[in-house]
Amino acid sequence: MALSDKHSRESLIPSFLYSSSSSTKTLALEKMLHARPSGFTSNVNVEGASARKGLVIPSPSEPSKKIEMYSPSFYAACTFGGILSCGLTHMAVTPLDLVKCNMQIDPAKYKSISSGFGVLLKEQGAKGFFRGWVPTFLGYSAQGACKFGFYEFFKKYYADLAGPEFSAKYKTLIYLAGSASAEVIADVALCPFEAVKVRVQTQPGFARGLSDGLPKFIKSEGALGLYKGIVPLWGRQIPYTMMKFASFEAIVEMLYKYAIPRPKDQCSKSLQLGVSFAGGYVAGVFCAIVSHPADNLVSFLNNAKGATVGDAVKKIGLVGLFTRGLPLRIVMIGTLTGAQWGIYDAFKVFVGLPTTGGAPPPVAAATELAKV
Asked: Whereabouts are the Solcar repeats (predicted)?
């Protein structure tokens, strides 16, 4: 048995290695190193050897793995992109939001945008412009995560329910339904932070921020008081988001169809991101106009303890609901929405996903393949 094993081992080793002649060893080794049998293909042999050893070494030029569309990783990426797009942008425009809220609550004191900034600077200093930034950042990060993540989910879900023909024919309804469904969930996440934010920003001395403002608010209004403004918030945010997503999709589709002379997939990524920002800015103007009356109601209700919608309408007036603070909100929301779509799509490009818009709603690929 030992002899057989020894013979087997030696048979696997080239004979020149255990040859007694040193010159034979050298000559044979040189032949082996320089020989190149006909039909030799290095890639095939290397790949074959790697496969036999269970090891595959990718080429340096091989592209990295892409995220599969509509997979859990896809929705996770969209959710994180929503956090970045909404949290960062809302925090950045905190000074504008602060002036806007005070103009809505006390128009006699905060008569215009310029005078509003002047009053805040005089009374609270430069630091006062970012009062309430923590609940703003956390609240709108939570809202953005739900808004964008669930929008992508519901858009696909409703498109699959409708089928390829109806989803293409009634694509705007798909966008409206998907965005409305997503915003219902997103506002539940936002509402407590929004309540504290408005109280901190419009009542000087109430609290420094979220850490001390949240306990004070709960002590004063109760835990359910954090959701006192949920209905007006839905009234503001659902039409806003429906307009934001549906108009964005329509504007981007028209830009690729009429303003850009080549298909979207042939455009550079920088051009696609420019289209996303432009479409988002125009959509933001429409959003501000549609949702402004409810925005006035939210600010009034969260500022006044025990106030009702009737009280708000009586004090602000019907015309005031539509016009008070509107110019500033158009500037703020237009810029905000454009930046949000730009950041969101930039993150999607960063992780290897296509930008949003420019095509009909998605349908199940498996269904299409089954038909073929």
From this structure: 73-157, 170-254, 271-350
Token digits of residue 311: 């009280």
pLDDT digit string, tens, across residues 329-363: 898 889 889 999 999 999 999 999 999 998 655 55
Phi first, then psi: what are they for 111, rounded to 5°?
-80, -30
Q: pLDDT, tens digit, for every residue of 145-182? A: 999 999 999 999 999 999 999 999 999 999 999 999 99
pLDDT at 57: 42
Domain ranges of the chain: 68-227, 230-356
Residue 68: pLDDT band by 50, 70, 90 thresholds?
A: very high
Nearby residues of 66 by Cβ (< 8 Å), 6 or more positions away: 352, 353
Helix ranges (H only) for the chain are 2-11, 22-34, 42-53, 72-92, 94-105, 113-124, 133-169, 171-202, 210-221, 230-254, 269-303, 309-316, 318-323, 326-350, 365-371
Calpha distance 331→333 (Å, rounded): 6
C-alpha dist (Å) from residue 76 to 66, 73, 139, 153: 14, 5, 19, 11
- The phi and psi torsions of 217 (rounded to 5 degrees) equal -65, -45
Residue 141, token pair as written in the block? 């990060």
DSSP annotation of 38? T
How many other CB atoms are found less than 10 A from the CB of residue 255?
A: 19
How far is 96 from 119, CA to CA, in rounded Å? 13
Alpha-carbon dihedral 14, 15, 19, 21, rounded to 10 degrees: -80
Q: How far is CA 32 from CA 11, 23, 36, 231, 233, in A?
A: 17, 14, 8, 82, 79
CB proximity list for 80: less than 8 A, separation 6 or greater: 145, 347
What does CATH list as the number for 68-227? Answer: 1.50.40.10
In order of 75, 148, 159, 191, 357, the CA distances from 162 in angstroms are: 21, 21, 5, 32, 19
